[in-house]
Amino acid sequence: MRIGVVVNPIAGMGGRVGLKGTDGKVAEARERGAEPRAPERARRALTELRERVPDAALVVYGGEMGEDAARAVGFDPEVVGAPSDEETTADDTRRAVEAFVAAGVDLVLFVGGDGTAADVAEALSEAGSETPMLGVPAGVKVYSSVFAVSPEDAAGIAASFERTERREVMDIDEDDYREGEVHPELRAVAVVPVADDLQSSKQLGGGTVEALAEGVAADVKPGVTYVLGPGSTVGAVKEALGFEGSPIGVDVWRDGELLVRDAGESEILDALGEENVVVVSPIGGQGFVFGRGNPQLSPAVVRRCSVEVVASRSKLDGISVLRVDTDDPELDAELRGWTKVRVGRFERRMMKVV
Fold it and tell me: What is the structure's pLDDT at 235?
């Protein structure tokens, strides 16, 4: 098997520092202390791939766009090009994919977010190629259904898939997203391996949440710090607590006071107290509680909090399990298992975290 590997090294950098993405915000993300996320996720995927298929032939783009991660885990890849400048661009991704097609790869394994997925899919289409593509999720939003659930799952799929199907590549305007408006746009339809460990397209909707929001507000305890995640469901909780929070950001609240609005990881950590609760809602259609859309809720934050999951019944009806992908495999393992999800003022439903 010949696998083309391309890494967007800046994907997801803006998430942990509260920028909701990295498009046009790389310099600001670095100023805020953001560190690259994609290279480590690439190494995780390729480590698993080498264990499963040690003789896989990797075709990579140079430096941090794939070569570094491949060599770090023991592969001796074929290098077919390198980025044109120190700051990589979407054009570098497209040129990498064009080189992969020319080299006759069987799969394009990319590491990034929705923007990277769109670049890969469009480059394959322009080359007239039916080569399948598969994403290792490393962005903030990850709306598309061309991604594996985790880096390790991506490796497992790459090592074993036998069939392909067509799936949607979605993206949103990050400037609108930062203003609280989400308008997914279909960018491409791509050929993707058929597998159970692919995530679904993100859904945006539904069901009433007023009762569960009232339930959370009624259970608030004095002195406890509440870290309230993004999304409309937790947004209803914020309203029930009496403040207007960030619709797609993380807010920190305690004893009737909004401590931080639209907080990054460091601001959340600074605001935490002796007892802390993080309130999150799974993403409709996918089930992610951590690891999609809320990287500010880092392993360091989650480890200092108890977790309350809230969701409308209609949202849970479309989800078979809950998922976590925090960048910390040990924490992911700790979070897995059965958990109670508040679905009403008093009612809860048991759901399995995988």
Answer: 93
68-126 pLDDT tens trace = 999 999 999 999 999 988 788 999 999 999 999 999 999 999 999 888 999 999 999 99
**CB-CB contact of 133 with 121 (8 Å):** yes
Could you read off the pLDDT of 194-244 as tens digits, one per residue? 988 787 655 444 445 888 999 999 999 999 999 999 998 999 999 999 999
What DSSP character marks residue 350?
E
- 16 CA to centre of own chain: 11
Instruction: Give the 3-state secondary structure of residue 37.
Output: coil
Can you list the alpha helix ranges (DSSP code H) found in the chain?
26-31, 38-52, 67-72, 90-103, 114-126, 151-160, 174-178, 210-218, 232-240, 265-271, 299-302, 313-317, 329-335
Q: In the 8-state DSSP scheme, what is residue 283? A: P
Torsion of CA 284, 288, 291, 294, to 10 degrees: 40
At residue 320, the 3 state secondary structure works out as coil
Residue 95 phi/psi, 5-degree rounding, is -65, -35
Q: What is the pTM of this model?
A: 0.66
- Tell me the C-alpha distance between 71 and 63, whole Å: 10
- Report the distance separating Cα 282 and Cα 268, nearest Å: 20
Task: Give 189's strand partners.
Answer: 168
Contact 127, 100 (CB under 8 A): no
Q: What is the pLDDT of residue 184?
A: 63
More confident residue, 120 or 33: 120
Which residue reads 């809320």 in tokens?
Answer: 294
DSSP string, 191-210: EEE--TTBPPPPP---S--H
Q: Taking the CA atoms of the chain, what radius of gyration do you get in angstroms?
A: 20
Name the residue among 85, 94, 45 with its Cα closest to residue 63.
85
Q: What is each CA distance from 231 to 197, 246, 251, 281, in whole angstroms?
A: 24, 9, 11, 7
Mind giving me the DSSP string for 178-192?
HTT----EEEEEEEE
* Closest listed residue to residue 198, CA positions, set 317, 125, 287: 287
